[in-house]
Amino acid sequence: MAEIAHPPRARRVAAMTVVLLLLATAVAAAHDMFIKPARFFVAENAEVLVRVLNGTFSKSENSIARVRVRDISVVGPAGRQQLDTTVWGVEGDTTTFRVRTGTQGTYVIGASTRPNVIALEAKDFNLYLREDGIPDVLEARRKSGELDRAARERYAKHVKALIQVGGERSDHFATELGYPAELVPLTNPYALTSGGTLQVRTLVDGQVAANQYVLYGGRTPNGGMIAQRSVRSDSNGVARIALRRRGAWYIKFISMAPVQGDTVDYESKWATLTFEVR
Length: 278
Description:
By secondary structure, the chain is mainly beta. It has one domain: Immunoglobulins (Immunoglobulin-like), CATH 2.60.40. The chain is built from 3 helices and 18 strands. The protein has helices spanning about 10-30, 120-130, 135-145, and strands at about 30-35, 40, 45-55, 70-75, 80, 90, 95-100, 105-115, 115-120, 150-165, 180-185, 195-205, 205-210, 215-220, 225-230, 240, 245-260, 265-275. The strands form 3 sheets. Strands 2, 4, 5, 8, 9, 10, 14, 15, 17 and 18 form a 10-stranded mixed beta sheet that branches. The chain has a 4-stranded antiparallel beta sheet with strand order 1-3-7-6, with no helix packed on it. Strands 11, 12, 13 and 16 form a 4-stranded antiparallel beta sheet that branches. Strand 12 (about 195-205) and strand 13 (about 205-210) form a beta hairpin. The longest helix is centred in the N-terminal third of the chain and has 21 residues, at about 10-30.
């Protein structure tokens, strides 16, 4: 059979398609992770289905194996309950678990994973730093002439959600879970309305993370996108989040640092927080 000659334009389109697929693969290598309950406003003594999105705030692209789970906690008026990892269900690209509420209050649901390691070529690692909000490491690589250097990274993800049970709010929203990276609200988001400002403290290994690059955004009640924006935490590790619209919100940051004398080049600690604004 004779070989079919593709016209130049077709070859260019095909080449561009390959490039775009490679870029998509590189970005997908570093999934965000969020806790997204089926409902953020819940009745007392109710069962809540909790989804763990490993991908974007709208879609899970990969599940998280139970063996990687370090902690699952629920904090409410009855105190902190650490759940057995057997509640962690995995099916295809979806991870879920269920919690049961008690009396009224503002609850924290948290999950923390054990570290994993990923290796990326230089261009893929640089793209990941740019797309996922780690500009300080990207700039450090640029200044040191390491943009062409591949990287091995050890990472772990630590995620929280706030749900409002009944109409009576409580101060449990400010509970620190002791995760290696954590977002801790200083005000209760369920006491705020759209147009308000939420203050959150960024913590890394229990210490305030000053000048931390933080991203935030979400989805409106009808599914529209709340555009992602960025802010830096102040000298006390406090970031101020402008809640411009009603809907489900996320706040996230990645703390990454170079590592010396190890099998990896960098170590990162991811933190996310989700809640709803009415």
